[in-house]
Amino acid sequence: MENTPAAGKMQRVSKKASQILQQTCALLWKNILLVWRMKSKSFQEWVASLVFLYILHDSASLIMYYPTQEFPYKFLGRLDDPAFNASGVTLMFTPATNTTRTIMAKVATSSPLRGVIIEEMENEEKMEEKAISEEETIGVVFKDDFSYTLRFPVGRAVFPNEGFEHIETCWDFSARHCKVPLYWYGGFLSVQSSIDAAVIEMKTNHSVWKEMKSITGVHLKTVLKPLFKLDYIWFIICAILSYGPYMHFLSVKVLKEKKKLKILMRAMGLQDISFWLSWSLLYIVYVSITASLLTWITLSEVFNHSSFLELYFFYFFYGTASIHFTFLLSSLLKQPNISSFVGFLLHILFGALGFLTLFEKLPRALEWILNLFSPFAFTAGLATMVKLEKYGPAFSPELHPFRKLYLILSLDSLIELHPFRKLYLILSLDSVLYFLLAIYFDKVLPGKYGVPHPPAFFLRPSYWLRGSSGSVGVRAGSSHDPVLGGDAEPMPPGFEGKEAIRLNNIKKIYKKNNKSTEALKGLSLNIYEGQITALLGHSGAGKTALLNVLSGFSKPSAGSATIYNYNASEMWNMEGMQERIGICPQINLHFEALTVKENLRIFAHIKGIQWKEVDEEVQKVLVTMDLTDVQNVCADALSGGQKRKLSLGIAILGDPQVLLLDEPTAGLDPCSRHHVWSLLRERRAGRVTLVTTQAMEEADAQAGEPRGAPQEVQTGGSQGTA
Ligand SMILES: Nc1ncnc2c1ncn2[C@@H]1O[C@H](COP(=O)(O)OP(=O)(O)OP(=O)(O)O)[C@@H](O)[C@H]1O
């Protein structure tokens, strides 16, 4: 490939993409193993969610009636459309006088009742007899020449009170079961207006039919009525909380991992997106199973008019948004119980706000803002479904043809033409937003360990251009010697140019409850390549504080620390740097439920070791650390010493150039300790090894060899001594 800047950029992008893929797969596999190994916890999680579904099913089966609520305005058409097809219908009238005969003749010729058969009847009883024997009959009983009563067979018209009862459950106006518009479609209004027009014409000698026939029928919007029965509200609340158990257990797991292991994984090269994606993918599987059950319950008990897939995707997108909302809360709040409680409250609060859409049409801007909260979007979505359920096709808004054309041609069509698409779009946008915000706050508020990014870090070009080491300004730039105090021995000749780590007046102050502890009081020191440097100091001298600064776990309060001229606090974001550095923290950090081999494999993937080389590298480390016999033992079943060896094994994965080891031999038996010492001595050529210890013997054994200059540093004072 050509060696142009564009080609280099492409290479970096594809390398990063494959790194993210590798890490995501490794962490997803780890999550699956954890689910399998921690069966009782996984069981609790699933049972809790099934209990919620059971409650939901119970509350759904209580819903017997659809709630009453606003019915939309509906245009029924014009009288001469015609609203009623009169051909073949017999219009009987009685008594037959000259006037009534003329009226009825006019009705037959100049009204929309074309095709109607006019028949004179002797009296009302005869009319009734005929109406019983024949189906298509309507009766007109004249009281005098101009006032009359209409008689319709049962089923062709409706009594006003009866119609009122059905006003809320009738969505298909043309259907026979729908009684409200029978006045229109059953012919009542057509017959009445035809006779009225004929009577007026007779009386005034002036035809009013032209005006009469343009009469239009409308179904008026109904008044607002109380909406929900309590059990319906209960159903919706249960649906909002149906993913609650997952959210709680997920926040416990994520926060536990973030507190302990994530900072180490990040220092080894973990991409934040891989961490969150690995949890997201696992829980998406949970969500899709739960969404199927939710859909099944809802379709069997509550809604009949929606299709399975429509409802399924609705629940699925809401579930995914809830999972990502949990990520966001886990980035903001560090205690799992607080995070779950706040999540619960916010779901209830915004879910309740969503009920508003059932009663009122909210201003569009306010609705879009509230839609940023998925529980609101979810409840509003359920409200949409209630309306769809009640009104079916009649619910779809009437669109002007031009508006329809515009919608088809524009992106809006995705949203407006189908109410479900709008919901899918909103919930998936919420999902993506929560996911990105979780990553953002994770960087800006990393918690106790980790160096926080500035709030506007994503606006800095340097953040996006940090691809290649050395391309952007994390290099400290200076190759000057640190300001060593008067009590520091000058370095013997031969060390110039081999400075790998430079500490310049490093201070670290911890502030807690108005009390500040100065762990590092201005330490200046160079650490050289090809040497083992031991930081020797009593308990509380600040050894771990220094290693934390170098490992990127914390930021110095003052001064600078550089590793190969890269600022220690910022270099951890740089591609390729993590592969060159191995860290063994003071406390053993590994996945307790995974075996030694699985732990090494996961960390090897995170470290960026090629897929095909991972097994070979893991075997090498197992042999080097003498862990082969326990490779298939779970980490929580290891002895203290074996756990320490595992931590060291994780640090030496990929044969890094810089080793930062915090009391690596603590808890090891004398034999293993000597094994580690000789291992480090064998590897020191061309590498930088920094070890902390409380034991003089260890410092002497490792750093006090006669070969080369001694590299034994005592901490605890204001300056290190070399
Ligand atoms: N997170 C913290 N908050 C407040 N004080 C802290 C914190 N971490 C360390 N300290 C304080 O900083 C000082 C240095 O602690 P550090 O852990 O670096 O000592 P150390 O030399 O590593 O000791 P040890 O050998 O026992 O591990 C101690 O007085 C400790 O109490």
From TrEMBL:
Gene3D superfamilies: P-loop containing nucleotide triphosphate hydrolases. The chain crosses the membrane at residues 46-66, 232-252, 273-299, 311-329, 341-359. Residues 697-722 are annotated as: Disordered. Residues 501-722 form the ABC transporter domain. It comes from the Eukaryota. InterPro entries: AAA+_ATPase, ABC2_TM, ABC_transporter-like_ATP-bd, ABC_transporter-like_CS, ABCA, P-loop_NTPase. CDD domains: ABC_subfamily_A (cd03263). It is found in: Membrane. Keywords: ATP-binding, Membrane, Nucleotide-binding, Transmembrane, Transmembrane helix. The keyword Repeat does not apply. One of its GO terms (molecular function) is lipid transporter activity. It is a multi-pass membrane protein. GO terms for cellular component: membrane. Pfam families: ABC2_membrane_3, ABC_tran. The keyword Membrane applies. PANTHER family: ABC-TYPE ORGANIC ANION TRANSPORTER ABCA8, ATP-BINDING CASSETTE TRANSPORTER SUBFAMILY A ABCA. This is ABC transporter domain-containing protein. It comes from Cyanistes caeruleus (Eurasian blue tit).
